[in-house]
Amino acid sequence: MNCFSKTKNALFFSSVDEISVDIWQSLNCEKNKYFNRNFLKSIEKNHPEITFFYIVLVNENQIPKALASVQIIDFYIDTVTNTFEFFIRQIKNIARKINAFPNKKPLQLLICGNTFVSGEHGIFIKENYNKKIVVKEIAKAILHLVRTKKELKIDAFLLKDFVNESLFITDEVKDYNYHPFSVEPNMLLKVDENWSSFDDYMASMKTKFRVKAKKAYQLSKDLKTEDITEQNIVDFLPEITSLYQKVASNAAFNLGNFNLETYKDFKENFKENYILKTFSLDGKIVGFLSGIINNNILDAHFVGIDYQLNREYAIYQRMLYNYIEIAIDNKLKIINFGRTASEIKSSVGAEPQDLTMYLRHKKSITNKILKLFLQRVQPTPFQQKFPFKTKTSK
User: Whole-model pTM?
Assistant: First the structure.
């Protein structure tokens, strides 16, 4: 066994490769691609600036029952520039007065979850185990990890992103002085089982939104789409990386920059289940989209856009419709468009799925101050659109 530490009910690993095949088979978690060793290894390999750990909980017979994915990042508070900014700066100003946050240094943040994907992708629990107990055991194991690894100088702990239905379980971490707060929702579109083509989707829309969709296709008619494959991805990487960086630089809140070299591994490991598509104008790439088919769900991942051409050619809106086409063609049930740009996503039919994170500072006084501010954090409001016709009962 290659774990660097263990307790009576937890094993600790610093790499995916250290986890034995027997453990993976016993967990039986890899049908979910976010807990597939190839997915985790790809992210680990291509982000050397992040420290990775994996916690495997075992039962009284030493049989694995849960997996937690942990990353440690350097988080620069001064880079936050959205509506979260005022809250962050208030905390920073007070906390620095009591020497809680390092001055002119990044905050060392321990994250249980996936740094680059929103959703419940940090903790996997096998069936028939008490999830409330398991979640508390993970919180305890994280503390053991930090105490064991003396070189870690963790300032704060973040558990991300939990849907409302899970909160009766995850609220157990309040016993370990974590404080919940709401973040931007995932925007989900349920794919109607009667949509056998994109035309069916269009037919289900109210006139106003159908006209908007047709206009987007008219504006984007000169865009040429092309699938990125395992064979040609090397040719596309420089251009799509440049486009991704434009989007990332405009983002108001980022936990880290994604290395697009990871896409090579994703295409190699997941083939057609990892979606990469470019949008070109006169031979120049002006946008790309990415996503993964995870069971019956299409999760939209990162996109890249030439903002100077976006409005004229409706690049982003066309991408949203392309995700819908992909989901219908693959007979999927849900599209998770992810966070950000909630209003335009709602205009194509997506609805918000609330998400909660839990944060804890290592210093008890700062943590109490943190609780007061986190209670005031609310996602950015947006106007929800309702593009579909009202269904009439037969």
Answer: 0.92
